[in-house]
Structures are given as C-alpha cells and as structure tokens.
C-alpha cells in the first residue's frame, strides 16, 4: 500500500494515468519535452546555418584566391612589360657614350593596382620623348 506522499508531492515518478498525479506534474513533463524539442531544433538550425555559412565562406575564399592569382599574373605581366620598355630605352641611350644607364628600376610597393593602365599608358609618351631626345643628341654629336 502506498501512503500517497509521493503522489501528492508530484515527484513525476508515475505516468500520469491513474497514479494520482495532478495536472501540474503532467504539465511540467510536457513543458520539459517542449523545451528539449526546442533545444534540439535550435541545435539543428544552428548546425544547418553553420554548414551553409561554411559553404559561403569557402566560396568567398575560392573567389579571393582566384583574385590573388589574377593579380599575381597581372603583376608579372606588368613587370615583363616594364622590363621590355626599360631594355628598349637602355638600348636607345646606349648610343650616348657620356650617359650611364644605371641599374634597372625596382617596382614601387606603394603603386596602386587600380591605376595599372594609367601607369602603363604613361610609359609610351615618355619613351617617345626619350627616343626623340636621343635622336636629336645623336644628330648633334655627328
């Protein structure tokens, strides 16, 4: 026989049917199950968000890596182009025995990548001016 103490205290040991548990014990159990269900759903939602964010970040990393590769290739192409212009200028000036060409210039780290085409287009007129000046000096030296 039971003294009914456990049943009156609502210790939750019974299944709620015919055990004398009141609505409070059943409500607490249902609420507990709701909270656990919400926690599981929140964990699943967070996991899904983290996975989608990881995919998004991996895409951004891949895009950034492609940009770095393209910028490296553009830098190398510009270095080659500048070297060709320098060599042509050095060949033109080599005819002047009194002028020392000096070492090849180094790239400037502070140059802005977005101004690449402006820098490249500034080379052609400067080279043309140099060529004309060398031709005038060569003619006068004869």
How much of the polypeptide forms β-strand, as a percent range?
under 5%
Extended strand count? 0
The low-pLDDT segments are 1-16
The global form is rod-shaped
Biggest pleated sheet? none
- The helix count comes to 3
CA gyration radius, whole angstroms: 40 Å
How helix-rich are the residues, as a percent range? over 70%
Strand/helix succession: HHH
Q: What is the structural class?
A: mainly alpha
pLDDT average, as an integer?
Answer: 82
Task: Walk me through the structure.
- The protein has 142 residues and is mostly helical.
- It is built from 3 helices and no strands.
- It has helices at 5-9, 23-93, 116-141.
- The longest helix is centred in the middle third of the chain and has 71 residues, at 23-93.
- It is rod-shaped and about 115 Å long.
- Residues 1-16 have low confidence and may be disordered.
Brief sketch in words of this structure:
The chain has 142 residues and is an all-alpha fold. The chain is built from 3 helices and no strands. It has helices at 5-9, 23-93, 116-141.
Describe the secondary structure blueprint for this structure:
Blueprint: H1 5-9, H2 23-93, H3 116-141
Helix pairs in contact: 2-3
What descriptive keywords fit this protein?
single chain, 142 residues, mainly alpha, 3 helices, rod-shaped, disordered N terminus
């Amino acid at each position: 026989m039971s003294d009914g103490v456990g049943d009156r205290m609502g210790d939750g040991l019974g299944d709620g049917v015919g055990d004398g548990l009141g609505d409070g014990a059943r409500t607490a159990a249902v609420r507990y199950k709701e909270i656990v269900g919400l926690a599981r759903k929140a964990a699943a939602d967070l996991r899904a968000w983290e996975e989608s964010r990881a995919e998004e970040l991996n895409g951004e990393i891949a895009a950034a890596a492609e940009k770095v590769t393209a910028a490296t290739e553009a830098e190398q192409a510009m270095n080659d182009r500048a070297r060709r212009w320098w060599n042509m200028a050095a060949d033109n000036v080599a005819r002047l025995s009194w002028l020392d060409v000096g070492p090849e210039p180094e790239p400037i780290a502070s140059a802005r990548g977005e101004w690449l085409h402006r820098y490249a287009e500034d080379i052609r007129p400067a080279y043309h001016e140099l060529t004309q000046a060398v031709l005038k000096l060569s003619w006068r030296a004869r």
